[in-house]
């Protein structure tokens, strides 16, 4: 610190003209910071698991970004065309060209779309862009100022990007900082005439309102009127991000405003479709070794579909799972491509091997070995296990590939059945298949029944489609992978068998196969036994009809076609579903290395439950404080050693809507002092206890549980129920 | 003066009288101007266009300094004064700075005085009704600006309101009022028909490639044909809309549909009744979206008849909300349209028997006026919203941040709105209101399989 000559203590500003330099230095400082990527120390960053994690995340993230970029592309292209197109057409008197982009309800998600739009427009050098947030536009004055400021600053930024250092001074002079109050339409006009008036440099001025609904209606109306009034001299284009529907626009803008704009509607992809795309193409891609278990998968999609429609949120949730998985230890570094994993095996330490041994699915593996020596070797000898690991890893990886292919088959097969018992989309089927053995579920039976009801043409076409799609999937997605050939080798014969069976179905006729079951003859001769009452007769008939039905169901199909069909279905069931679409608990050993299933942690960490957390904290302080004094046998117990706030809280839970303060105080005192005989209650209350009580009540009020009542003296109102 | 009027009259048919009056008042800059003119009339009657053209002519022919500004833009007085001064005495350039009214009058006087003796100044202020909300001295000073500056200056105020609406406690000096009445049907038709040549040329240009159509077009599109079309068009639209620019726009849009069968050769150009049968439907559907200005890209133009009859059903289905948000919305609707004392009866399983008394029966015999669905939404607290939400939702969900943030999302989307206490949500005294209608909520209920009607007191 520089010494100062001053008698008083204080904070001194030294003017050294460092603002600009400071900015530079900051940007320089930022760069190395970006290189060292993480807050974690070197010892973590260099661990194999961390490397694998980073690789996996980067891969997936890039993939998602690429996918989203492509799905935005069409709308963006149209939008850019629209904006650029406005330049050519002579605007008729005072009509503001406007594009309404129907974005869907999650507005924060869509900011990225608008950034992409801005970048594109900049890249084409077609327009100046200002993104006007509703929070900047509380009043018309603020709105116009931030609009003008945004447009002029945007220009400065672009210029800066173009000629980084060339004429620093020139840029400096141009950019003598604008004061907010100077930003008026007049200023904008003169700026525009100075910079862009010549024909070839003419650029559109794009104003983007990303959250149309949040704008104050009157401000927005005035803003549009102003913009349209200047349309003749300044080529404005307005872009509205509409979250709900076009009626919102028409509801907000009265006739005299809406006839000043020319509206073009652009539709973006709906959020659920976007999510499905991400799930199908990225999360369910066979490319990645990391998988989510059925429950976790469902949990994340559940948050999306039931709560917020935020793809970004979903991706962050997924990232959290990924982190949680890999941070389990170095053993999880094996969760990668096969050849890489082989390399990793050598690096594993004894502890890592122990982690593997402790995996739940390792136990069945050990149990199925029937050689005593080998069991001991597996359990104690690290080197032996390391030798075994490649085979295990291979089995596991192969299993997931087969699972994925078979999923493709099954999706095509049952996806469009009426009422979709197993689910319509790939993700639903994935969850269903992974959660439990799908064969034994009633939904699967229902599917099978429905399939058998199909007509010949339909059935054949359906199975053929499924085969084709699986084949296609094998060629497109699986073949380029490392274990692709192995997977294809396993699956091809099965598909071939099914194809043959289908051919049988095609050839089969409707001719009945005459094979009388012995039952039928029995039934003919079967007489009703003599009965004593109506009731008995009724029962007997009922029984009979039930038996009939049973027999009918069990009966082998009578026509040739039905038999061939049944055979095909049987084949599909054994070859595809039973073999490959196994539930997670039947998956090969050490699958835990590839599948993340710790849903409890994720739930606890990514879903905030403030009310529940507060309740736990107050009801059972031991949970958070871990102190000896507050240990409770039963949660509802009231002990004097608890913190005052906790005691007061627990007492208030017993009350109704209104709480009498005096009674509350008495109860408090009896709990805290630990004695509740009558004489004590009569005497004067210890001021210390009263003070503690008052303070605890104030704290409870601060937390928002109670409010002092105005209607009834000395009463508090409960605000929770 | 005559020159100005005669040059404007062809541009503004049916406004001869107004132009003449204006010309008499401010047509000659060598004569003294009136201090202020108030020009009023509905939107689309040509106030702004007429004034603008008039000022331009004046500026051109008599070297009058003119300023035209829009009062909406002037959110501070300073901006208005600077714009005014800049356009009246533009010599100053960038250094121009006006802080208040006094300064403005002073500067205007100083800079304008040494100029030619009979220099005229004209100021037109659009949307003059906004002047009332500005600083208290703005309107009085503008009306007496001539007197204050001692210049030959006239202020023209344009507004949709009659001048009586401007009176305030301190009173205003007299102005000359000039009313631009709405065009009647014949006048409207005359105005719309005046751009016949332009329309015809446009059509011919459009079909320049297609020989056959070009020929038909040349033959069929005559002045009579166009007038017939406008007659039919106005018979539908004149009752709903008298805004001439709007009518002009829509008329041009619909003309191509009207022309279609003629071009195809299916209907003769003179067979008006068949053409009418053909056009009636599209016209009616165009009527529903007049003023909306939705523009279709070229490839979608053909389904013009079917566009966007944004019925509530379609809207509710197109609005994508997360599952719980839908239930929250339904819960909000129920909370808004049921009395709080009915909640127990509606949402609790064993709510006990209700005793019927004549009084209650009478009270509950609802007439439509008393139906709460027609009375509009009542406010409710967040607690009640959540309680109803949990009652109507079959599954159990935790009260998590994600759920609570849905409420604010709905507020953002303007499906709910705060009635009071927006600042103290934490305290629990904030009250919300549901802003959607019954139709809409019924549709949402249908999507999630929940019968909303069953839970509305009105329908019990």
UniProtKB/TrEMBL annotation, chain A:
Q: Where is the segment annotated Disordered?
A: 158-178
GO terms under cellular component: DNA replication preinitiation complex; nuclear origin of replication recognition complex; nuclear pore; nuclear pre-replicative complex
Q: What residue stretches are annotated with the Origin recognition complex subunit 3 winged helix C-terminal domain?
A: 611-721
Kindly indicate whether the keyword Phosphoprotein belongs to this entry. Answer: yes
Q: Locate the compositionally biased regions of type Acidic residues.
A: 158-171
The record's listing under CDD domains reads:
Orc3
Return the similarity comment: Belongs to the ORC3 family.
Q: What is the official name of this protein in its record?
A: Origin recognition complex subunit 3
Q: Which organism is it from?
A: Drosophila sechellia (Fruit fly)
> Which gene produces this protein?
Dsec\GM20305
TrEMBL record, chain B:
Question: Where is this chain's protein located in or outside the cell?
Answer: Nucleus
Gene Ontology CC annotation, any one = nuclear origin of replication recognition complex
- Orc1-like AAA ATPase domain mapped to chain residues: 12-156
| InterPro entries given in the database record | AAA_16, ORC5, ORC5_C, ORC5_lid, P-loop_NTPase
Q: Which is an annotated GO molecular function term of this record?
A: ATP binding
**Domain Origin recognition complex subunit 5 C-terminal positions:** 321-456
Tell me which UniProt keywords the record has, alphabetically: ATP-binding, DNA replication, Nucleotide-binding, Nucleus
The Swiss-Prot or TrEMBL record describes its family as follows:
Belongs to the ORC5 family.
Q: Which PANTHER family match?
A: ORIGIN RECOGNITION COMPLEX SUBUNIT 5 (PTHR12705)
Q: What is this protein called?
A: Origin recognition complex subunit 5
The taxonomy runs: Eukaryota, Metazoa, Ecdysozoa, Arthropoda, Hexapoda
């Amino acid at each position: 610190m520089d010494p100062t000559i001053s008698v008083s203590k204080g904070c001194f500003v030294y003017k050294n003209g460092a603002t600009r330099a400071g900015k530079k230095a900051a940007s320089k400082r930022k760069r190395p910071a970006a290189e060292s990527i993480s807050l974690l120390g070197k010892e973590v960053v260099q661990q194999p698991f961390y490397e694998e994690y980073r690789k996996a995340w980067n891969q997936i993230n890039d993939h998602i970004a690429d996918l989203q970029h492509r799905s935005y592309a069409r709308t963006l292209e149209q939008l850019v065309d629209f904006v650029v197109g406005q330049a050519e057409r002579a605007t008729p008197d005072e009509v503001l060209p406007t594009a309404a982009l129907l974005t869907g309800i999650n507005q924060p998600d869509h900011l990225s779309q608008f950034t992409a739009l801005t970048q594109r427009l900049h890249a084409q050098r077609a327009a100046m862009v200002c993104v006007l947030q509703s929070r900047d536009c509380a009043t018309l004055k603020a709105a116009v100022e931030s609009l003008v400021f945004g447009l002029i600053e945007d220009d400065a930024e672009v210029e800066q990007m173009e000629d980084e250092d060339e004429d620093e001074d020139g840029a400096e002079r141009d950019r003598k900082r604008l004061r907010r109050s100077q930003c008026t339409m007049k200023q904008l006009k003169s700026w525009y005439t100075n910079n862009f008036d010549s024909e070839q440099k003419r650029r559109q001025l794009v104003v983007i309102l990303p959250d149309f609904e949040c704008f104050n209606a009157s401000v927005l109306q005035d803003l549009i009127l102003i913009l349209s009034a200047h349309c003749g001299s300044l080529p404005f284009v307005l872009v509205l991000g509409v979250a709900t529907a076009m009626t919102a626009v028409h509801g907000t803008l009265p006739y005299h405003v809406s006839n000043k704009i020319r509206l073009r509607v652009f539709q973006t992809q709906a959020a659920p479709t976007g999510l499905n795309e991400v799930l199908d193409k990225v999360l369910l891609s066979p490319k990645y070794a990391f998988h989510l278990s059925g429950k976790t998968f469902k949990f994340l999609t559940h948050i999306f579909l039931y709560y917020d429609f935020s793809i970004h949120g979903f991706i962050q949730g997924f990232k959290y799972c990924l982190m949680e998985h890999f941070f389990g230890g170095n053993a999880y570094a094996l969760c990668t491509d096969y050849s890489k994993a082989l390399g990793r095996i050598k690096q594993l330490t004894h502890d890592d091997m122990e982690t593997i041994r402790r995996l739940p699915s390792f136990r069945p593996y050990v149990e199925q070995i029937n050689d005593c020596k080998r069991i001991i070797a597996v359990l104690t000898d690290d080197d032996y296990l390391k030798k075994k690991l490649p085979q295990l890893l291979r089995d596991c990886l192969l299993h997931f590939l087969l699972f994925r292919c078979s999923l493709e088959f099954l999706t095509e097969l049952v996806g469009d059945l009426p009422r979709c018992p197993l689910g319509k989309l790939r993700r639903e089927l994935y969850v269903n298949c992974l959660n439990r053995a799908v064969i034994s579920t009633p939904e699967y039976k229902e599917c099978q029944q429905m399939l058998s009801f199909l007509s010949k043409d339909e059935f054949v076409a359906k199975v053929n489609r499924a085969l084709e799609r699986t084949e296609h999937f094998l060629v497109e997605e699986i073949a380029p992978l490392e274990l692709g050939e192995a997977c294809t080798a396993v699956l091809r014969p099965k598909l071939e068998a099914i194809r043959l069976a289908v051919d049988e179905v095609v050839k089969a006729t409707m001719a009945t196969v005459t094979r009388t079951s012995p039952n039928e003859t029995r039934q003919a001769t079967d007489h009703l036994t003599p009965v004593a009452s109506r009731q008995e007769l009724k029962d007997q008939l009922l029984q009979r009809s039930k038996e009939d039905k049973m027999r009918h169901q069990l009966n082998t199909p009578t026509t040739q076609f039905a038999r061939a069909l049944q055979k095909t279905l049987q084949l599909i069931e054994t070859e595809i579903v039973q073999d490959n679409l196994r539930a997670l608990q039947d998956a090969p050993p050490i699958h835990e290395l590839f599948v993340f299933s710790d849903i409890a942690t994720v739930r606890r960490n990514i879903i905030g439950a403030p009310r529940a957390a507060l309740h736990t904290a107050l009801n059972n302080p031991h949970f958070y404080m871990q102190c000896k004094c507050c240990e409770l046998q039963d949660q509802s117990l009231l002990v004097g050693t608890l913190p005052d706030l906790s005691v007061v809280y627990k007492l208030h839970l017993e009350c109704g809507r209104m709480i009498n303060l005096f009674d509350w105080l008495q109860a408090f005192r009896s709990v805290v002092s630990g004695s509740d005989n009558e004489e004590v209650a009569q005497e004067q209350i210890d001021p210390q206890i009263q003070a503690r009580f008052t303070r605890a009540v104030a704290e409870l009020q601060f937390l928002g549980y109670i409010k002092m009542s105005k209607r009834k003296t000395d009463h508090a109102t409960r605000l929770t129920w | 003066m005559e020159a100005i009027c005669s040059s404007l009259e062809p541009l503004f048919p049916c406004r001869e009288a107004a132009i003449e009056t204006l010309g008499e008042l401010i047509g000659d800059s060598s004569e003294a101007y009136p201090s202020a003119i108030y020009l009023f009339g509905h939107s689309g009657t040509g106030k702004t266009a007429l004034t603008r053209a008039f000022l331009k002519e004046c500026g051109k022919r008599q070297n009058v300094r003119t300023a035209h500004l829009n009062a909406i833009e002037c959110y501070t007085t300073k901006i208005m004064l600077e714009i005014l001064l800049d356009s009246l005495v533009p010599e100053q350039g960038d250094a121009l700075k006006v802080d208040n009214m006094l300064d403005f009058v002073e500067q205007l006087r100083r800079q304008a005085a040494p100029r030619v003796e009979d220099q005229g100044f004209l100021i037109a202020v659009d949307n003059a009704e906004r002047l009332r909300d500005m600083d208290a001295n703005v309107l009085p000073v503008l009306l007496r600006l001539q007197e204050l500056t001692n210049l030959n200056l006239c202020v023209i105020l344009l507004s949709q309101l009659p001048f009586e609406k401007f009176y305030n406690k301190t009173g205003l000096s007299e102005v000359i009022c000039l009313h631009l009445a709405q065009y009647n049907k014949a006048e409207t038709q005359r105005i719309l028909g005046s751009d016949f040549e332009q329309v015809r040329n446009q059509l011919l240009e459009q079909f320049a490639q297609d020989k056959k159509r070009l020929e038909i077009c040349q033959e069929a599109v005559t002045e009579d044909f166009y007038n017939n079309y406008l007659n039919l068009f106005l018979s539908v639209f004149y009752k709903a809309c008298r805004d001439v620019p709007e009518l002009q726009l829509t008329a041009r849009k619909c003309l191509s549909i009207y022309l279609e069968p003629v071009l195809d050769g299916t209907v003769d150009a003179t067979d008006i009744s068949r053409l009418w049968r053909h056009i009636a439907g599209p016209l009616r559907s165009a009527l529903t979206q007049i003023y909306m200005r939705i523009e279709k890209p070229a490839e979608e133009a053909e389904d013009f008849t079917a566009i966007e009859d944004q019925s509530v059903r379609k809207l509710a289905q197109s609005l994508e909300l997360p599952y719980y948000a839908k239930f929250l919305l339904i819960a909000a609707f129920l909370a808004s349209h049921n009395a709080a004392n009915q909640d127990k009866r509606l949402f609790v399983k064993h709510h006990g028997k209700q005793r019927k008394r004549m009084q209650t029966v009478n009270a509950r015999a609802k007439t439509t006026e008393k139906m709460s669905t027609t009375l509009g939404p009542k406010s409710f607290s967040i607690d009640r919203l959540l309680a109803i939400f949990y009652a109507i939702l079959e599954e159990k969900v935790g009260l998590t941040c994600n759920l609570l943030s849905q409420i604010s999302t709905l507020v953002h989307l303007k499906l709910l709105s705060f009635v009071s206490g927006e600042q103290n949500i934490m305290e629990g005294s904030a009250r919300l209101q549901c802003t959607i209608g019954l139709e809409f909520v019924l549709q949402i209920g249908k999507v999630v399989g929940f019968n909303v009607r069953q839970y509305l007191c009105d329908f019990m």
